[in-house]
Design brief:
With 107 residues, the chain is mostly helical. It contains three helices and no strands. The radius of gyration is 19 Å and the shape is extended.
């Protein structure tokens, strides 16, 4: 859904061939996805810090999930002594709040 943007999430399950996405619609029914979208909460939004507050966190709504994934990834991943890290930098002209400005980045 992040790659092929639709106006409405229901369009991925549409019967129109130009809107339907077989990869997404084959994973689960639209009613199940709708239920999950409306009922799945991992943090209490009523106590969410406001933007500009000292404790504001852009990932507040999913922070417990992110922390769970990070903790388990660090616990379960045991890298070998010989490790290679490859970094890829891709040109991006869109707007995103997590985007970083890198002045020495070459395109």
């Amino acid at each position: 859904m992040g790659i092929k943007k639709q106006c409405s999430y229901r369009d991925y399950w549409s019967s129109a061939p130009d809107l339907n996405d077989a990869c997404i619609s084959s994973l689960m029914p639209v009613n199940r996805f709708s239920w999950l979208l409306s009922h799945l909460n991992v943090n209490d939004n009523s106590v969410m810090p406001k933007k500009g507050d000292e404790h504001y966190d852009k990932l507040y709504r999913i922070r417990p999930f992110v922390d769970f994934i990070l903790k388990n990834s660090q616990r379960l991943y045991n890298p070998n002594k010989i490790i290679a890290i490859d970094e890829s930098m891709i040109k991006f002209k869109g707007r995103h709040s997590a985007k970083q400005y890198l002045p020495k980045k070459t395109y």
